[in-house]
Design a protein that fits this description.
The chain has 18 helices and 15 strands. By secondary structure, it is of the alpha/beta class.
């Protein structure tokens, strides 16, 4: 018998272990609770996928992330057999509690199907948590965790955790379910990240993950929250104010994972690694000192992360040099637009001059860049869009020298719950369609009425065609376009129905 099982479930790419189960394991260890982490998601890719016909697996895979898709008889049989295998495997541990990480909305169908079959066979306490507690596709925040309510109303779970495990798990273990974040619509109390212990990956077969590294790759976090408040982003509302680990603390954590698990490649899960310039500088300095003390070359560790653009007064050339020597491999940059005017409306807090300086330093120090660009911001005029195309031309030289390894043009601006522009659309004169509250792609800007959904899609297509000619590499570019065209066609069908009526 084991007191707590922590499950990671499909569907998420099996590039590396998930951080949440490893965080829970560390917390449970400190509470002297016997526990085990099981990665069912890895088995989904590593066992189920190669064991069945590829067409059948694709049918099951689409079932997990396409609404209203049903399985055919053969796929249904394969799916149920696999679900039952994992019910048997889990119940063999005779757990007192099961904690399930619902990483996103793509894990919801597994959770429903698996728990529906598990419940008649066991009265084990089921607790779920994660961003997948909300109903919105592609979203990460909602005032009400609709999926969590649905699961509890159906009797499939006993409790949910909304927010941070550090302030809720200890209460649950003490059988206290009356604290913020447990079965509440509002979030749990924030924790002090400087007091977080190291994650425990001892239950993971790290080398089995498909991250492209022989010794595996592990997730880390430098901080929670963000130093900025971009109007389209829900991170500040979801995670609270910016809280960060000290540079020495972060370096010691990375060194611990290297010495314990033999892993030298890392991915920071948080919104940015360089929110505190002083601590980020000390982090890289400490890594370099470790290399020198142990006869290792620079960049013995490699890390990838999101990062923000600083100006040359805050982030000196020496800081980029330390990044390169410390092991910065790929930085994901939210560039968003080539227009300073639109970027100011976004509250990105940097200019093209700052961006040019950063790109030059990344190239000089052999640090790769992955660019995030947002087409169709409400105030974007044709002239602003042309500035984005000019920026792509300007940075073609960084594609050629290997600095820019890819670009994500997204699916145009979607207004999501939790973002400042959702809470206060009037600030940018954003209005909804037919009197509805602006949400998703259903919005217009009163000061920029020519920017229709059709126009946004056309600009998105034009940007990709232009970038392809310049040699940029894309992540899911065609899939994003398909999503947009499906949305547009659905809007046309609805409009035709209204007119017909």
């Amino acid at each position: 018998m084991i007191e707590a099982l922590v499950l990671s479930i499909p569907r998420i790419a099996a590039a590396r272990p998930q951080a949440a189960p490893a965080i829970l394991k560390s917390i449970l260890n400190n509470l002297n609770v016997t526990n085990k982490v099981i990665d069912i998601n890895l088995d989904y890719w590593d066992s189920l996928q190669p064991s069945i016909d590829p067409v059948i697996f694709n049918e099951i895979d689409e079932y997990l992330f396409i609404h209203n898709k049903n399985l055919g008889p053969i796929a249904q049989q394969c799916w149920e057999q696999w679900l039952d295998k994992w019910i048997k495997n889990v119940l063999e541990y005779k757990p007192k509690r099961i904690f399930i990480s619902i990483f996103s909305w793509q894990a919801q169908r597994f959770a429903v199907d698996w728990l529906t079959r598990l419940r008649p066979q066991s009265n084990v306490e089921i607790i779920i948590g994660g961003q997948g507690l909300i109903r919105e596709d592609h979203g990460s925040y909602s005032d009400r965790p609709g999926f969590a309510h649905y699961m509890k109303d159906k009797g499939l779970i006993d409790h949910w955790i909304r927010g941070e495990a550090e302030t809720t798990i200890p209460a649950i273990i003490a059988n206290n379910y009356f604290v913020p974040g447990i079965d509440t619509d509002f979030l749990a109390e924030r924790s002090d990240v400087k007091k977080h212990g190291f994650m425990d990956f001892s239950d993971f077969d790290i080398k089995k993950y498909q991250g492209g590294y022989d010794t595996g790759v592990l997730p880390m976090e430098t901080s929670r929250g963000c130093v900025r408040n971009c109007v389209f982003c829900d991170i500040p509302k979801m995670q609270g104010g910016f809280r960060f680990k000290s540079g020495d603390q972060l370096a010691d954590e990375m060194i611990h994972y290297y010495e314990r698990y033999g892993v030298s490649n890392f991915f920071f899960n948080d919104a940015l690694c360089n929110g505190s310039v002083k601590d980020f500088r000390q982090f890289n300095t400490r890594l370099i000192q470790y290399y020198e003390q142990h006869g290792l070359p620079d960049r013995s560790f490699k890390y990838c992360s999101h990062a923000i653009i600083h100006n040359d007064r805050a982030f000196k050339p020496r800081d980029f040099e330390l990044m390169g020597r410390g092991g910065a491999d790929t930085m994901v940059l939210g560039i968003e637009t080539g227009s300073d005017r639109v970027r100011e409306h976004m509250q990105k807090k940097f200019t093209n001059v700052d961006l040019d300086y950063n790109m030059k330093q990344y190239s000089k120090n052999k640090i790769q860049v992955y660019m995030l660009i947002l087409i169709g911001f409400p105030t974007e005029t044709r002239e602003d869009f042309d500035e984005t195309l000019k920026m792509l031309s300007r940075y073609q030289k960084y594609v050629a020298d290997g600095t820019v390894i890819g670009v994500n043009l997204g699916s145009t601006l979607s207004i999501e719950e939790g973002a400042p522009m959702y809470d206060d659309p009037g600030k940018l004169k954003i209005i909804g369609i037919n009197g509805a509250k602006p949400k998703g792609v259903d919005w217009m800007c009163e000061d920029n009425m020519s920017l229709t959904l059709k126009e946004r899609i056309m600009r998105r297509l034009e940007a990709q065609e232009y970038a392809v000619k310049l040699g940029y590499t894309f992540w899911k570019g065609d899939d994003q376009i398909k999503t947009l065209t499906d949305i547009y066609q659905e809007r046309i069908r609805k409009l035709a129905g209204v007119i017909h009526e």
